[in-house]
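FAQ: What does a multi-protein file look like?

Like this. Sequence, then tokens, then the next protein.
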Amino acid sequence: MNTIVLVAMIVIGLSLVLLALKLSGSGKPRSLSGPGEALEFLRGDYPEVGDGPVVMAADGSSAVLLLPGGLVGIVRVMGRHVATRLVDRSGIASVSRTGPAVVSMAFAEFGWSAMTVRFADEETADRLVAHLGGNGKGRR
């Protein structure tokens, strides 16, 4: 087969696949629609989780369920995947305010990277920092 024809077929084929992916919406990252969906994801992995207030990131990329005793349930969207985690204060290496309505958390476990969450207002960020026992200024 002529090399030019073969290259043209490959380019056209790849273009059609990319167009189909674009039109299907599979390239769009997901986000959480609200506290109910965040609880649903968390309870899918941790059925024993009780009720508590849910604080949502302003962009829907993550949510934190505030449970008694400094326990938190974390729902985190990464691309099209959702990761959940149930941690107590000892599982969080540090929590700090890094800007207006912005909280950064580093985890004691190596497997979970640090996360930075921007909330809709400063009161929500303060509420999360207070629940985790942090002072909002960095390492606790």
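And here is the next protein:
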Amino acid sequence: MDYETLLIERQKGVASVTLNRPTKLNALNSTMAEELRQVIKELEADREIRAILFTGAGRAFCAGGDVKELAKIEKMKTNEIEQFVRFGDLLIWDLINLEKPTIAAINGVAVGGGCCLAMGCDIRLASTETRLGVVFVKRGISGADLGATWLLPRLVGAGWAAQLLLTGDIIEASLAERIGLVNQVFPPDKLMPAAHELAEKLAAGPPLALKVTKRALKHSLYRGMAEHLDLEGMIQTFCFRTEDQREGVKSFLEKREASFKGE
């Protein structure tokens, strides 16, 4: 399927999704939001795809919401504004609930909704030229948008989340790495090779085990330890009955790389 605002490439079990509005710094408009929701569903259903990599065309990852669309909001009725906000929430919900590993290769500025898209991925890699910020308050709106107030404290802790959300400050990649907003920082020419290498590593892993590990990670964010240990027990019992588990043990004993099938 062709998309107006996205480029999709598939290789070695990895789908690369490139936000493709470079002249607008890949600003998120309604078309891109709709297409992202569609491609998430498409890739989730594609059994050949085992990991998904998100990045941006040109010199930005995503500069947040398209200002031209945001300017129209003042003419909307309250129920229309609610629908507008809710659609963005559904995009983040779909992204967070993807059961395949996701990586954001943040190749430039990622602010507002763009920062939230990156935060919605499992792993975030950045370049030394990356700048990140949840800048909503600088536009006179709440930082409670696109899941920011749920995602950010879980990544950087309550203190840094409060500072970033209440000031709307844009920070450099080095600070983002130090506080845990991004996992690693690379020189600009090394970012995409590193991101593809990691994505291919994830794609070569046992699909069922990665899927249920993601479920457990998400579950741990809002459940107590006793309940969570029960879940871990059920998940691990399931994994011990898979062909991938048998292959993992067999390949180790035979001193070779495992070949996982998702069975």
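Q: Is there any per-entry metadata?
A: Some entries carry free-text notes. For the entry above: DSSP finds eleven helices and ten strands in the chain.
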